[in-house]
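Replying to the earlier thread about multi-chain prediction with a worked example.

Input:
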Amino acid sequence: MSLNVTGLHVGYATAQVLHGVDFTIGENETVALLGRNGMGKTTLVRAICGLRPPTITAGGITFGGVDITKRSSHQISRLGIAIVPQGRRVFGSLTTLENLSVIPQRKEIAGERWTVERVFEFFPRLAERQSSMARSLSGGEQQMLAIGRALMTNPSLLIMDEPSEGLAPSVLDVIHDRIEGLRGTGLSTLIAEQNVDLALDMADRVIILDDSGTIPWSGRADELRTDAALLERYLSI
Amino acid sequence: MAPASDPRGSGAGAPVLVIEDLGKRYGGVQAVDGISLVLEPGERFGVIGPNGAGKTTLFKMIAGDVTPTAGAVHLFGRDVTTMSTARRARMGVGRTFQISNLFREMTVLDNVRVAARGGTATARVFWRPQRAKDDASQRSLAALESVGLADRRDLTVANLSHGEQRQLEIAMALVGEPSILLLDEPAAGLSAAERTTLKALIEGLPRSLPILLIEHDMTLALGLTDRVMCMENGHHVVTGSPAEVRENETVREIYLGRRDKK
Amino acid sequence: MFEPVFLAQQVLNGLSFGALLFLLASGLTLVFGLMKIVNMAHGAFYLLGGYIGVVIAGLTGNLLLAVITAVIVVAATAFIVEVVLLRFVRGQELPEVLLTIGVSFVIADLCLAVFGGDPQNLPTTATIPGALMIGDLVYPWYRIFVIGVAVAIGLGLAFVQTRTRIGAVVRAGVDDREIISAMGVNIAWVFTGMFVVGAGLAALGGTIGSGMQSILPGVQNEVLLYALVVIIIGGLGSVTGAAVGSVLIGLIDAFAKAWIPELAYFTIFLPMALVLVLRPTGLFGRTA
Amino acid sequence: APPQAAEPEPDAGGGTEAAVSETLKVGYISPVTGNFAVAGQEMVDGWNLYWELNGNEVNGVTVETIVEDDAGNPEISLTKAAKLVEQDEVDVLVGPLLANTALAVAEYAESVGVPNLHPVAASDDLTQRNANGLTVRTGSMGGSQANYPGGEWAATEGGFDTAVTLCADYAFGWESCAGFVQGFQDNGGEVVEQLWFPNSTTDFSTYVSQIQAAGADMVYVATAGGAPGPNFLTSYLGLGLDMDKLLLNCCAADQGTLRAMGDQIVGLKSVSYWAEGRESEAVAELIEAYKEFSGGNVPGAYIAGGYITASLVASVLEEQGYLTGEELVSAITESTFEDNIFGRVSFDEYNNTVGPVYIREVVKRDDGNLYNTPIATYEDVDQWFGQDPEEALQQPNYSQDFQG
Amino acid sequence: MNRRMLVNLALLGLLLVVLLALPYFGVSNFVLGLASTILIAAVLASSVNFLGGDGGMVSLGHGAIAAASAYAVGWASRQGLDSMTQVLLALVVTLVVSFLYGLLSMRTSGIYFLMVTLALGMLIYGLAFRLSSVTGGENGISGIAAPGNLHEEWIYYYVVLGIFVITTGALWVVSSSPFGASLRGLRDSESRMRSLGYSVAQYKLSAFMISGTVAGIAGVLAVWHTNFVSPSSAGVERSVLLVVMVILGGIGTLLGPLIGAAVVVLVENVLSSYVDRWPTALGLIFILVILFARAGVAGSVPKVLAKLRGRSPSATPPGDRSSPEGTAVPDRNHNP
Ligand SMILES: Nc1ncnc2c1ncn2[C@@H]1O[C@H](COP(=O)(O)OP(=O)(O)OP(=O)(O)O)[C@@H](O)[C@H]1O
Ligand SMILES: Nc1ncnc2c1ncn2[C@@H]1O[C@H](COP(=O)(O)OP(=O)(O)OP(=O)(O)O)[C@@H](O)[C@H]1O
Ligand SMILES: [Mg+2]
Ligand SMILES: [Mg+2]
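Result:
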């Protein structure tokens, strides 16, 4: 299913952040959302997932043809959009295992269903810590758990807000490979990232946010990788 | 309580931090196991290792948040193993938290001000407005400037983006003018541009300031430090110069990613 | 004061008072202990449930019918309170406090207007008559019945909390309501449901409890205080804690009033103060 | 303070004398909401009932009542008293109910020169250490006074040699208990143990077990009304203990308790200045009226307190016409009121009721209601138990440690 | 500095002028007495407000602290001690009680703090009941006369007003000082404060002592006003109403306590003369305030004003006294 964002304006009580954002994510596609700190990546991600604040002041979002602009977050989730929130936000007073098993699973999915075992296979470290309280996990372990938790909903669009934060380099490879492996099962991915190398490796396409609150550039990942001027201009690399 | 003698001046060669056979056990989890380490004055020391290796726990034992189940910690020549966090902070331990730990309902500038006054008598002043243009306020502004948050100073922290909160975290550690600095993944959540600023910022700190740095960004972890230790599952794996560690077989196998190996 | 019969009786007194405390705290354990909703209207729900139970029991002489009616009416009231009022301040402690205090004032005052201020007890026709007799030991069946009900409810709560997903969902919702709903749980209704169940339990406590102690204006505050004490001593979120807290207070109350009567005024609050001074998050509370 | 502010309160008591009023304005303070609302409301109802029954115009004087609610809180009581005196310019304050509110208002009333009648408040000190020329206890008796005959009866006619007492652990309980204990001991009884329960007690089983363990001939119980009475009885009867051994004070066995407990307490004995089951024209008239007013209930002590207070006021107005201030007080305290609902009532020098005390037994009548019916009567009981008032006032206040 | 502050200052000034002029409007002693009652309740509420708004420690024991201080005055006056000694004794008692309270409640936070303070309040309440030789038991102590000519209603009113202004001003100064900022830091993150070198216990204890002292002052004012103290002053119901006043007015705001106190006192004492079911009315007021002004009356006024002006309110930090919309209503679910 594809995501369509058109003319999206989003803001908080105190400030308007996004001033007209348009893009789409097609089936099986991985899109990277790049931008410096504070440009509105999280704001966009939250708007898509129905998390308030911020509020959508204009424009619309459809997913698989369904208008989700005004839907509440649990309804959006049931349509197949899962989020790995920024800052992990695991359920601290639940054990690792409970964090996964508490998630309601969608039935209607194409590929192989996600189970707790499958997540543990993905991140063996979590299996070792399955009965620890999530709040006592290390930062990286929490990040793995947040990713595993999102997968447990059996999403068709996985939105990850800085999944690489706090993860050891070798784990990034694992994530890269596994997400790559999930393509073709119908899973699309939107990944907001600061680790540009990782993002460009994983993504087919890239959209960039800048301080105008719009998308000044979007295009193929390899285009961006090789264009030093663009990298310098929007990402200061 | 002021430190017995000025830590930075004390016996030029005496190690600032000595860790002996330190261990921490949580129920069935041995988070840190037999780590020893000596940090010389002015040394910059990196700690790396897979997730859950025990890096943060090690920091917490140095800072005083967690009491070790084995071994001892000496700071500036004093045994501080059971000393409270606050007293260690007043001895000059400055630190950042891996998971941002900020005053969410206060403004950015007030966060830094409270940090700037930490451990000093000025924090107890109750008859003057805290927003006065005193020394603490000036240092706070400078610290915000240095991490690039000056234009955000009047926002409430809860309204900051994640990366901005990470920057604030660093500013709060620096503003207290610590005698030893513990940085737990300072670059996490920062964009490439901000990372460059951070790198320059750390490089620009006085050479006399000893720094312990946990990072998963190898450019920083290996680029900013004189020596690096790699841990795994609480154990010590290897300690050496950044180059040695990068080439170490075990480190490459358990920790480094494709992009770093190149 | 140390004869076996006296001691046995006192133990039973302590246990049955503890059981009553647990009954009146059980609803709060869910709503406040688990969901962290500071429900100051809990006592008022107990009061309302008690009145309705007494009236129905008086009309029909049937305790079960009384309990069911009381639970339904109070649950419906709670449903309205939750959906119309509480939902708008969910998660904001102080507004929740003020709102539920307001609800409590209204319910208690209207109860006074409707049911009058006389103390009301479950009519004898609806209670369980007679007493257990073993040798010299005599003990009323009804109090033993109350212990039984408390145990049953405690086990039920523990089961829901630890063995079913709903318990974990609620705890997850307390940890991070936004994220659990982004994972597809309609947490607002889960909370509504729990709130309603909590109020229903208060009504059940009110009806059963009115066989042991009268319902009258003012009871709502007493019940709220006792219930808070019990779950605070036990530690928020812990059903075991609430159970232990109830029994502990019940026994301390029974024996202290006999052996150290000078402290009779303090049998409830002194133990709580001591526990909190030594263990700031209660006996079974997790240290943050 | 600003210099010219010397007269910011122009008309405090300025206009009252000019108007020769034929209206007796009564400020009536009572807790009609909150936790003491039943007692408070009954106290008001009793007063109103009298005027409804007999008309509120007596001998050309119209009695106008302004009821104020104090919710049982002394601070509110005082504000309301000030409001009644200053804004409504009442001639007399009646109430409030609770001991602490009553003492606070009595003191205020005296300071502004307004008479203060007390239909219910039972604190001994109201007419002892805190007595003043304007405060009259019209509708009840002091705690110790009303219970002394209970002790006397128990030791003599009751035929009990030993007693255990269970009383509320605060002033009213201490005073009631002291009355009983002195009456019992003065007549040869022995009190083997005294138990005290905190007012907040809801479960009395631990005390019932202690009573049982004490093994005395009889049990005396004093509560201040409300829940403790029924709660005690539930525990006591639940353990299968003997009701014939019980003697309760006024309030533990008041109508509220009777209605809550029902037929199981027929035969229960208690001691009080009010006995709704007494054969008397005045009582019958009140019962009749109250039943109609309340839909079938029988009046308890608080109704009676309000009612008799009204009847005393009415009867002095009838005799002497419009009266206020000290005149009103002395008109009441210098009269003897024959055969009103309490029986024969007069007043001592401290403005306290002197009257009969009844030993009562719960009886079920044909109308289906329970009545406290006298089985023994002690006439002209005063608050001094034969002591010299001056001497008695030298004693400390009654407490757990001092029971007389 | 900016326009909004000027407007606020002007409003404050206006309020003060009205309060100062009240006795000249020819109002009766009853009205003046009522005004004093409100101001005294406001002083007491502001002590709760300080601890709860800045320190995040909502106390259910402040009624009892004030009562302890009132009892000290009462006991001293019964011993025939002069008013200076009465006040001194009240101060000592207040400090001792606050110190013990602070010491015992220091390690707890949130609802546990609430419950410890509640328990301690109940202990004082129990003592007031039981220690009748000192406290007069349930009857309380009456006849406690205010010194000199303070019993003149209008003089006393000015005294109370003066003390209200002084305590409110003092709490405002403390709250906007570095010490106040440290308290707000503690409210938001104790662990961060520790790692910055703050001794959490010391700060909490000091805050408690400051707040307790203000409560003690209110106790003295109250007892001289009513000439009377009894256990009901120490009861939970009073303390609950104090917290209610604070939330109703807007926690962490300058005038919240005054507004909350005015509402509660007026409903109890005035509305109750006209409306029989006034507790229902009071309950409905709580509900309506929360539904339409979540941050309390004083906390929401700026937002409403901003809306009227067609602008959204700018982001000022909650719990910050220099901006009246500071509300510090903790939201358990953090936004990212
Ligand atoms: N709850 C909020 N209320 C008000 N403003 C907010 C809020 N959250 C974020 N902002 C502001 O909105 C802007 C965009 O924030 P956002 O979190 O979307 O940035 P981001 O691109 O995700 O940054 P980062 O890389 O640091 O996570 C920032 O300027 C931030 O200060
Ligand atoms: N309070 C605790 N209770 C139980 N286990 C804990 C606790 N704190 C940490 N651990 C465990 O100890 C191990 C070490 O944790 P630590 O946070 O030190 O790792 P880390 O090296 O910092 O990892 P990361 O790079 O992911 O931050 C982890 O496996 C973690 O689950
Ligand atoms: Mg972000
Ligand atoms: Mg870590």
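The CA atoms of residues 175 and 206 of chain B lie 13 Å apart.

Feel free to reuse this layout for your own posts.
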